[in-house]
């Protein structure tokens, strides 16, 4: 991202002007009908935000050539779903696992001072696997994070977050999760949640 870029979100989970693509993406990714555009100066961004979306604004949503949506009936309701809530990336993160059918919170981790979304997604999946193992359950786990799922499969979180005093806690949790994966076997499927077809994952924090 070019230094000094400003992102205007006219339609998204949260409308406004954002100074990083990560913040903007959080508002528009997977949001049906999102409208957003980048501007080189704050002045231009403010002027644009005060008016209707310009013709150059990007609009999210399925393309005309998009594949047929997945039938929600294909969801395995006897499962758990995990997701992360964040305030910045990197920033404060938290995660939880819920019953996919009822939304009941089965486990959760309080706010971690500094971490990344991907690290949180990884931890949430591993926590879910450990939780189900304790329950003697082979239920599947839904996650909307391709990266988190990949890291679990590899048994290694390839995060690039700098290691220092502020990030020591998240790294400790990640290393514990990696160790658990190396020491435990599981039969649970880890399935990608199809957000565009099914809506937000059931463990979503609802920060719209």
Overview of the structural elements:
- With 208 residues, the chain is an alpha+beta fold.
- The protein folds into two domains: 6-50, Ribonuclease HI, Chain A (3-Layer(aba) Sandwich); 80-192, Ribonuclease H-like superfamily/Ribonuclease H (Nucleotidyltransferase, domain 5).
- It has helices at 21-28, 42-49, 117-135, 146-154, 168-183, 195-198; strands spanning 6-11, 16-18, 35-39, 58-59, 80-88, 91-99, 105-115, 141-143, 190-192.
- The chain is globular and about 55 Å long.
- The two termini are 24 Å apart.
- Mean pLDDT is 87; it is low at 62-68.
Features:
Ribonuclease HI, Chain A, Nucleotidyltransferase, domain 5, 9 strands, alpha+beta, 31% helix, 2 domains, 25% strand, four-stranded antiparallel β-sheet, five-stranded mixed β-sheet, 208 residues
What is this structure's SSE topology?
Elements: E1 6-11, E2 16-18, H1 21-28, E3 35-39, H2 42-49, E4 58-59, E5 80-88, E6 91-99, E7 105-115, H3 117-135, E8 141-143, H4 146-154, H5 168-183, E9 190-192, H6 195-198
Helix pairs in contact: 3-4, 3-5
Protein name: Ribonuclease H
Catalytic activity: Endonucleolytic cleavage to 5'-phosphomonoester
Keywords: Cytoplasm, Endonuclease, Hydrolase, Magnesium, Manganese, Metal-binding, Nuclease
Q: Can you say what the CATH homologous superfamily of the largest domain is?
A: Ribonuclease H-like superfamily/Ribonuclease H
What is the name of the CATH topology of the largest domain? Nucleotidyltransferase, domain 5
Helix percentage range: 25-40%
Mind describing the biggest β-sheet? 5 strands, mixed
Q: Name the quaternary structure.
A: single chain
Strand content: 15-25%
Q: CATH class of the largest domain, please? A: Alpha Beta
State the domain count.
Answer: 2
- Structural class comes to alpha+beta
* Average pLDDT, all residues: 87
Distance between the termini: 24 Å
Radius of gyration: 19 Å
Poorly predicted runs of 5 or more residues: 62-68
CATH architect. name of the largest domain: 2-Layer Sandwich
How many helices? The count is 6
Number of strand elements: 9
State the order of secondary-structure elements, H for helix, E for strand: EEHEHEEEEHEHHEH
Biggest sheet: strand arrangement:
7-6-5-8-9
Shape descriptor reads globular
Protein name: Ribonuclease H
Pfam families: Cauli_VI
Binding site for Mg(2+) 2: 121, 144
Domain RNase H type-1: 70-208
């Amino acid at each position: 991202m070019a230094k000094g870029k400003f992102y205007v979100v006219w339609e998204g989970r949260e409308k406004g002007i954002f100074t990083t693509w990560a913040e903007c993406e959080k508002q528009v990714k997977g949001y049906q009908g999102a409208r957003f555009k980048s501007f080189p100066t704050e002045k231009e961004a403010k002027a644009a935000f005060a008016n209707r979306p310009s013709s150059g604004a990007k609009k999210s949503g399925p393309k005309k050539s998009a594949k047929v949506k997945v039938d929600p009936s294909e969801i395995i309701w006897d499962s758990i779903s995990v997701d992360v809530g964040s305030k910045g990336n990197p920033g404060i993160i938290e995660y939880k696992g819920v019953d996919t059918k009822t939304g009941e919170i089965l486990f959760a981790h309080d706010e971690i001072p500094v971490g990344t979304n991907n690290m949180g997604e990884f931890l949430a999946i591993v926590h879910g696997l450990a939780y189900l193992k304790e329950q003697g359950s082979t239920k599947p786990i839904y996650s909307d994070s391709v990266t988190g799922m990949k890291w679990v499969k590899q048994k290694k979180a390839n995060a690039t977050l700098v290691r220092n005093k502020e990030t020591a806690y998240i790294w400790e949790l990640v290393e514990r999760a990696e160790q658990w994966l190396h020491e435990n076997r599981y039969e649970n499927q880890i399935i990608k949640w199809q957000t565009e077809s099914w809506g937000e994952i059931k463990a979503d924090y609802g920060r719209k």
